[in-house]
Amino acid sequence: MTGVTGVAGPLRLTWLHTRYQVLETLRVPVVVVSTAVFPALVFAVFVVPQAGGMSPVAATAATAQLAVFSAMSVALFTHGAGIAEDRALPWDTHLRTLPVGAAPRFVARVVMGAFFTVLGLVPLVLVSALLTSATVTPAQFLRALLALLAAGVPLLALGLAIGYSLPAKAALALAQVLLLPLAFAGGLFVPPDGMPGWLQAISVWTPTRAGRDLVTSAVTGLDAGTHVVPVLLGWGVVLGAVAVWAIRRDQGRRFH
């Protein structure tokens, strides 16, 4: 590995770390099932029974909401709890002592998260297409993927902050505690217009609601609202700063 030089060296190392992390995660069936099946299962339980009375726009928006939920699940568990578990392993400590830098492993984690996010979308989209009236054009689908990428930035930062600042058991517990409240407050299970007034007032300030509105707007053409960009940027900056602090603190505590 030390003999690899130039641009190809970091790229090859990133690919090797990505492949290793994906294969390691795929060896844990419960992680794969929860990532790939749970969003589609939630959709089947909450949305499909009402599909007969839903318009194509409503069905499409419901699919987009669960896509954001899938991205949040990956951020909290694959990045948050997963990183915390890796930090406790002797193998992770060994990798961090090698003279190749931390960038390839860090980028590999982000790419792995993107892989499992896409994996979670496949059964969700299939169930939506087969059992509801949801429709999407290729252009809308591409816009939705880009919107999901933007919506996932603060969620990714949240996962990194959890993973690099807490021990494994605490990270898993916090991920479990945050998952459902963020999902309900963000309108990922129940559309915002079905929320009580007090919850709607709180909802617009959450990263999940801003992400939900951005993705549903991209896929349906509905107005996203003026709150989306400021909320996503604000949470991205705050959580990003916490994540950077946690990563630097972890590096300093363990190797200096």
- Count of distinct strands: 0
Shape: globular
Q: What is the helix tally? A: 11
Structural class: mainly alpha
Mean pLDDT: 87
Regions with little confidence, pLDDT below 50 for 5+ residues: 1-5
Kindly report how far apart the N and C termini lie: 24 Å
Q: How much strand content do the residues show? A: under 5%
Helix content: over 70%
Helix-strand pattern, N to C? Answer: HHHHHHHHHHH
Q: Write down the domain tally.
A: 1
Note the main sheet. none
Multimeric state: single chain
Report the radius of gyration as a whole number of Å.
Answer: 19 Å
Outline of the structure:
The chain is mainly α. 78% of the residues lie in helices and 0% in strands.
Would you kindly provide a written description of the structure presented here, covering whatever features stand out?
This protein is an all-alpha fold and about 260 residues long. The chain has one domain (about 10-255). The protein has helices at about 10-25, 30-35, 40-45, 55-85, 90-95, 105-130, 140-165, 170-185, 195-205, 205-220, 230-255. α3 (about 40-45) packs parallel to α6. It is globular and about 60 Å long.
Q: How would you summarize the topology of this molecule?
A:
Elements: H1 8-26, H2 29-36, H3 38-46, H4 56-87, H5 90-97, H6 103-131, H7 138-165, H8 168-185, H9 197-203, H10 207-220, H11 228-255
